[in-house]
Design a protein that fits this description.
By secondary structure, the protein is an alpha/beta fold. The chain is built from 15 helices and ten strands. The chain has a ten-stranded mixed sheet, with helices on both faces. It holds the Pfam family LIP. One of its GO terms (biological process) is lipid catabolic process. Residues 1-31 form the signal peptide. Keywords: Signal.
C-alpha cells in the first residue's frame, strides 16, 4: 500500500517538473506569491542579534510549487551569521514525505544552484510557487528532490545566499546551510529527530555552498553532524570560471557578486560607468537569465575601467577568500565532475581533490564521462544519492581517497 502511495505522489512531483514552467507563465500564478522583497515573512525582527544561530523565528505552511502535492511542507525564518559577522535572517523550506520511517528519519540538506544576486531567485520563493526568469532551472531540481522524498527522507532547502544574495560568498553560504539544518532539526512539527542522520548535497553553485558548509561544520556548527556529503560540478578557480564565461551572464554574475561582497578588495573601483550602473541595479535584476537579457554579448572589458580586469590583483583578492580547499572536511565525501565540463574546468576539480586528499580527507572522486556540465548533473546524481543512502544506513566509508 505504502509503495503505491509513494509511486502516486512521486508521479505527481514528476508531473510538476513538467508543467511547472507552463504554470508559472500564467499571470495569476505570478501575482499569487509576493517576491521576498515584498513579503513580510522575510523581514528581520529588531531583536535578531539576540537569538542564537539556527533559532527559528517564524514558520508557515506552504504548498510546494503552489500545487496540491501530498508532502508536508513549511518555511522557517531563522537566524544565521554572515561572513562579516553580522546577524542575518534566512529562510529555509522543509519538506517531509508521507512515507513512514522506522526510527529517526534521515535529513537531506539540498542546496539548489542559485546563480543570482537577487532574492527573486531564492529557492524559498520558487519552491512556494513564485515565478522568476529561471523556472527551467528550478524544474531541473524537482526530480532530484522528489527522489529524496521517495526514499522517505526529509529535505531541507535553505536560501544559503541570504537576504543580500551573496553569490560565491563561501562563509555566508556555508553558515546559511548549517543554520538551516539547525532550524529544521529544532522545528518539532517536522518530526525530525535529534538522532536523524544528516546528509548534504549540491551541484554547481549548490556544490559550492555544500562543501563550504562541510568545511566549516567542525568549527562553526560541531553540533551538526554530517553522515556524508555529495557534491558535483564543483566551482573551483573562480578567475578561470569567469574567463571561460566572458561574454555570457555567468561572468557578469561573478564580477558583480565579488565586487559587492568584497568591498575591501576595491574591485568596484575598477568598474567603468556601465559597470557601476550594473552593480547598483544588481539586486533588482540579477538572476542569471535577467542579466543575459539585459547585457547580451557583454564582456567584462565592457564593464571595466582597466584592461584585463579578471587578471587584476583586485579581482583575485576578491576571489581567493572564497575558494574551496582551505580546510579538509571531516565528513565522508562523494565528488563528481565531467571531464568535459565547459563551465568549470576539470583541472580545478582535480586540484581540489588533491588538496583534500593531502589534508587527510575521506572521499570518493569520480571523473564523469557524461558530456558537459549539465550532462554530469543528470547522469551522476543517483550515484551521489546512493552514496548518501549508504551513509544513512550506517555503512562506513573506507578512509582515504578513491579516485576514478
Amino acid at each position: 500500500m505504502f509503495r503505491r502511495i509513494g509511486r502516486l505522489w512521486l508521479a505527481i512531483l514528476a508531473l510538476a517538473a513538467i508543467v511547472l514552467p507552463a504554470v508559472m507563465s500564467m499571470p495569476v500564478a505570478r501575482a499569487a506569491v509576493p517576491a521576498p522583497g515584498d513579503d513580510p515573512f522575510y523581514a528581520a525582527p529588531a531583536d535578531l542579534a539576540s537569538h542564537p544561530n539556527g533559532a527559528v523565528l517564524g514558520a508557515r505552511t506552504i504548498a510546494p510549487l503552489g500545487l496540491p502535492i501530498p508532502v508536508d511542507a513549511w518555511q522557517l525564518r531563522y537566524r544565521t551569521t554572515d561572513s562579516e559577522e553580522k546577524p542575518q535572517l534566512n529562510v529555509t523550506s522543509v519538506l517531509v514525505p508521507p512515507v513512514p520511517w522506522n526510527g529517526p528519519r534521515p535529513v537531506l540538506s539540498y542546496q539548489v544552484p542559485e546563480n543570482s544576486l537577487d532574492t527573486r531567485c531564492a529557492p524559498s520563493f520558487t519552491l512556494r510557487g513564485g515565478r522568476n526568469t529561471e523556472m527551467a532551472a528550478v524544474a531541473q531540481d524537482v526530480p532530484f528532490i522528489a527522489d529524496a522524498l521517495r526514499r522517505g527522507w526529509a529535505v531541507v532547502v535553505s536560501d544559503y545566499e541570504g537576504p543580500q544574495s551573496r553569490l560565491f560568498d563561501g562563509v555566508t553560504s556555508g553558515r546559511g546551510v548549517l543554520d538551516g539544518i539547525r532550524a529544521a532539526r529544532s522545528f518539532s512539527p517536522a518530526g525530525i529527530d535529534t538522532a536523524s542522520p544528516i546528509g548534504a548535497w549540491g551541484y554547481s553553485s549548490g556544490a559550492f555552498a555544500t562543501l563550504w558548509a562541510t568545511q566549516l561544520r567542525q568549527e562553526y556548527a560541531p553540533d551538526v553532524g554530517l553522515a556524508g556529503t555529495s557534491a558535483g560540478g564543483v566551482p573551483t578557480d573562480i578567475p578561470t570560471m569567469a574567463q571561460l564565461a566572458d561574454g555570457d551572464a555567468g561572468a557578469i554574475l561573478i564580477l558583480l557578486g565579488l565586487a559587492r561582497n568584497e568591498p575591501e578588495s576595491r574591485l568596484a573601483d575598477l568598474l567603468n560607468d556601465q559597470g557601476r550602473s550594473a552593480l547598483r541595479t544588481a539586486d533588482t535584476s540579477a538572476c542569471g537569465a535577467d542579466l543575459a537579457q539585459k547585457y547580451p554579448d557583454t564582456h567584462i572589458a565592457d564593464l571595466a575601467a582597466v584592461p584585463n580586469l579578471l587578471a587584476h590583483t583586485a579581482f583575485r583578492d576578491a576571489a581567493t577568500p572564497n575558494e574551496l580547499g582551505g580546510t579538509a572536511p571531516d565528513t565522508p565525501l562523494y565528488l563528481y565532475h565531467s571531464i568535459s565540463d565547459e563551465k568549470i574546468p576539470v583541472v580545478g576539480y582535480n586540484a581540489l581533490v588533491d588538496t583534500y586528499c593531502a589534508q587527510g580527507a575521506t572521499l570518493t572522486a569520480t571523473h564523469s564521462l557524461f558530456p558537459g556540465h549539465m550532462g554530469a548533473a543528470a547522469g551522476e546524481a543517483f550515484g551521489g544519492m546512493n552514496f548518501l543512502a549508504d551513509r544513512f544506513a550506517g555503512a562506513s566509508q573506507a578512509p582515504g581517497c578513491q579516485v576514478s
